[in-house]
């Protein structure tokens, strides 16, 4: 079957959003609310085991703050903290504070020119995706993606495959005609669970993750003047990922 569609994760894949966006935004929201919660880079790496910001805050309290006495309206408090965190994240992204990873813009432009269909499948909040695309990729670029499947639109977040199934159903495509792009173990569990061949680009938070089953694991997508490094999987003998690379990977 020919390659027809590319499905992209956002956080860690399109940009280092966890390091540059989500973690600082969570900490700002906690400080604004007068809470003594603070997530340093090492703790945040562990908290990333749980996807979804609201789910992550609840996990933090359950696992790391057994002393914390939850008020009866704890769930509402988490929802409000999450709204504040989303506002901080949006402000960071809107000021261009979250750059795209190497090769992302080039590959998206090439894929569009080649007629490949594009979609997003992420656990983050939809407005985080649009603000990132508009400010890091460019105005109007959210329209490059036929479907932006994000956040609470499916009840079970990654590692459940639901968000990928949702995106493929909306596009009317089958897994065999798609490639997924991911950066994390929860991400690849979701994409493989949906039957998708998956290309991984790692980042500092995910270097040690288990990427068994990935078609290829790369340092990043690379650029003609800044080659990427292959860590595991198919060796296509190329220094950067372009549409020809994707077609070859998909055909294996
Ligand atoms: C990334 C996540 C998200 C973000 C926070 O998922 O796990 O939870 O860290 O997002 P993906 P929200 O890599 O699949 O995009 O706070 O908006 O939930
Ligand atoms: Mg990710």
Please write out the topology.
Layout: E1 5-8, H1 17-32, H2 41-47, H3 53-64, H4 74-94, H5 104-113, E2 117-122, H6 126-137, E3 147-150, H7 162-171, E4 178-182, H8 185-193, E5 197-201, E6 216-218, E7 230-233, H9 243-251
Bound molecules: xylulose-1,5-bisphosphate (XBP) and magnesium ion.
Xylulose-1,5-bisphosphate binds next to helix 1.
Describe the structure.
This protein is an alpha/beta fold. The protein has two domains: 5-16 and 100-251, HAD superfamily/HAD-like (Rossmann fold), CATH 3.40.50; 18-94, Putative phosphatase, domain 2 (DNA polymerase, domain 1). It is 42% helix and 12% strand. It has nine helices and seven strands. It has helices at residues 17-32, 41-47, 53-64, 74-94, 104-113, 126-137, 162-171, 185-193, 243-251; strands at residues 5-8, 117-122, 147-150, 178-182, 197-201, 216-218, 230-233. A seven-stranded mixed beta sheet has the order 3-2-1-4-5-6-7, sandwiched between helices. Strand 2, helix 6 and strand 3 (147-150) form a beta-alpha-beta unit. Helix 1 (17-32) crosses helix 4, helix 3 (53-64) crosses helix 4 and helix 4 packs parallel to helix 6 (126-137). The longest helix is centred in the middle third of the chain and has 21 residues, at 74-94. It binds xylulose-1,5-bisphosphate (XBP) and magnesium ion (MG).
Q: Helix/strand/pairing class, anyone?
A: alpha/beta
Order of strands across the widest beta sheet? 3-2-1-4-5-6-7
Q: Secondary-structure element order, as H and E?
A: EHHHHHEHEHEHEEEH
Per CATH, the class of the largest domain reads: Alpha Beta
Kindly report the name of the CATH homologous superfamily of the largest domain.
Answer: HAD superfamily/HAD-like
Which band does the percent of strand residues land in?
5-15%
Query: Helical segment tally?
Result: 9
Helix content: 40-55%
Which fold does the CATH topology of the largest domain refer to? Rossmann fold
First-last Cα distance: 11 Å
């Amino acid at each position: 079957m020919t390659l027809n569609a590319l499905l992209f994760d956002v956080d860690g894949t399109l940009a280092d959003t966890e390091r540059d966006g989500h973690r600082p935004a969570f900490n700002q929201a906690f400080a604004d609310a007068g809470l003594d919660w603070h997530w340093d880079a090492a703790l945040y790496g562990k908290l990333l085991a749980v996807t979804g910001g609201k789910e992550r805050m609840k996990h933090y309290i359950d696992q790391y703050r057994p002393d914390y006495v939850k008020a009866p309206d704890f769930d509402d408090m988490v929802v409000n903290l999450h709204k504040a965190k989303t506002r901080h994240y949006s402000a960071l992204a809107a000021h261009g504070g979250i750059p795209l990873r190497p090769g992302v813009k080039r590959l998206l432009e090439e894929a569009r020119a080649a007629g490949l269909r594009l979609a997003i499948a992420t656990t983050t909040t939809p407005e985080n995706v649009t603000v990132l695309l508009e400010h890091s990729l460019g105005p109007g670029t959210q329209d490059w993606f036929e479907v932006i499947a994000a956040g609470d639109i499916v009840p079970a977040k990654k590692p459940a495959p639901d968000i990928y199934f949702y995106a493929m159903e909306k596009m009317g495509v089958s897994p065999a005609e798609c490639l997924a792009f991911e950066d994390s173990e929860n991400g690849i569990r979701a994409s493989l669970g949906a039957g998708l061949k998956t290309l991984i680009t790692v980042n500092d938070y995910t270097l040690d993750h288990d990427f068994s089953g990935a078609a290829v694991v790369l340092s990043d997508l690379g650029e003609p003047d800044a080659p990427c490094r292959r860590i595991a999987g198919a060796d296509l003998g190329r220094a950067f990922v372009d549409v020809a690379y994707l077609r070859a990977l998909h055909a294996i």
